Amino acid sequence: MTDLALTGLITRPAQAWGGVRLVPLIREKPIEDLRLDARLYDAEFGVVEVDSRTVYSSYIPHGFVANWTHDATPAAAYGTQLRGPAERDRAPSRMPLRFHRRMARRADKNRLRFLPLHLALEGYLALHFGGPEIAWEEWSRRAINRGLSPRVEEAYTGAAVRGLQDALRVFEIHPGQCGVLVYAADALAAAFVVPHPDDYRALHSTLIHDLYGELIYHYAMLSMPVADFHARIVDATVRSLADLRARARQQQQEWAAFHDEVMAGGLLGTGYTYQRVYEMGDYRLSRFLPPFERQRENHIGELITDGTGRLAYLKTFRLSENQVRRGHLLTQLAADGWNLTATAAALGVTEPELGLRINAAGFGHLLRQDVLDRYRAQARPDRR
Predict the structure, then answer these.
(1) In degrees, to the nearest 5, what angle opens at C-alpha 315 toward C-alphas 263 and 309?
(2) What is the spatial distance between Cα 355 and Cα 323, in angstroms, rounded to a whole number?
């Protein structure tokens, strides 16, 4: 499977607040045998044990718990745990930490606790994490022994994205709504989908605690208010209430087609690679990576689908151009066995230019210092 589609969901007209646009997604038939609820943590900075030698550290304010049944009977969602204002506002005397075992961990027979969005982010950070598999002479001893450890990326919380908190507060939740697509300056920032309308109402506000990329932060900070899309019906074509209903339905369909093909076109489509994380009865929890194509949208994310491909859960994160560049570079290096000569030829650059790209991407510590100095000297223009 390489494509991503909003199977089982219908796009409804958007609502705008300042530079933020929210597009609701509804289900005509909710998913009853899979439910989600949030588990809030007392410490927002978490450390996750990935394996015996690797940990993932990040801002992790909450986890999601998936509950499912095996016989298609309705599953129950446990209530969201909330902290009181006094506990939330009390300044800690030191940085509180919470230690998690695994990104996805079975909590009971039919309950799975997983860390939303961080499941996808850990997959991106682990991209070719082991480093060079062959000890080519250009790579440092650290690169051979430790690979890309540590690997670090930066993001912003939703509270820092201008206008998002107010947009979520005034947003009108539609009957049957099970998801939303968030735009900043009409750039797609994130997609969020859950199985049931009751789940969405309980988890709608958690979007403010999610992480958003550098691009989205700057777009929201610098953009002017976005324009509303208004339906336009020619009076001459309406001669009865039936005509009016038909024209209104046509406007809804045209908007949905425009949104899915144009506005969300960078997210929906093919080219993703998937990694299955957990089996939950008839459902599968997976995460995905984009093709890391330059000069286009690239999203990472996680999803839950059933055997027919129906989308039950989705959460995405849009990568910045710098993050795409790093992913593209690591993917090409791994494809060529970390051989700099072969990689440079594949990218259409000289070996010194590739070495400087590696350094500019933040991976200069992987190269031996004398090799990096030689690349700098070779790339320097000859001054006579």
Answers:
(1) 85
(2) 18
